[in-house]
Write a structure and sequence with these properties.
three-stranded antiparallel β-sheet; about 50% helix; about 140 residues; alpha+beta
Length: about 140
């Protein structure tokens, strides 16, 4: 078995920490909108407490949902086993979901400069060269 890890591979197995780090950017964007809304309500002389509480809760929920989606899409590892391969997301590594191998001849790899596109199960996965130290080796595995 040959395995390649991206720079997105989780260095620690602390699920909560990695999930919160991923959600932090979404929390910030959501709270920025809430703060702008609060400032507008203060300017108009309206009550801000209800808006601030509801906006904060919605911002946190939406941030968690977007972080979950991002971790499910973010490829962290590709491994090859004989004439098969598997693509693992950060979410699958952290939560230990079942991994499915896929025959290499169904991958239909294509390369466009710094992007490698492959077919995996029912989706098209794109690997960016900036995320993979061994990008050329991965391309060699898929193109051989």
């Amino acid at each position: 078995m040959t395995s390649f890890r991206s720079i997105n591979y989780p260095q620690s197995k602390n699920r909560w920490l990695i999930f919160q780090e991923s959600a932090m950017q979404f929390y910030g964007a959501g709270m920025l909108l809430v703060m702008l809304g609060v400032m507008l309500k203060v300017y108009l002389g309206q009550n801000v407490l209800g808006f601030a509480l509801i906006g904060t809760v919605l911002s946190l929920l939406l941030g968690n949902l977007l972080a979950y989606s991002q971790l499910k899409r973010q490829v962290a590892e590709v491994f090859f086993l004989d004439k098969h391969f598997a693509v693992l997301s950060v979410y699958e590594i952290l939560f230990g979901h079942e991994n499915h191998v896929f025959p290499l001849h169904y991958a239909s790899p294509s390369r466009d400069g710094t992007t490698l596109s492959i077919h995996y199960l029912d989706r098209i996965v794109q690997l960016q060269k900036k995320d993979w130290e061994d990008f050329e080796l991965i391309w060699d595995w898929f193109s051989s």
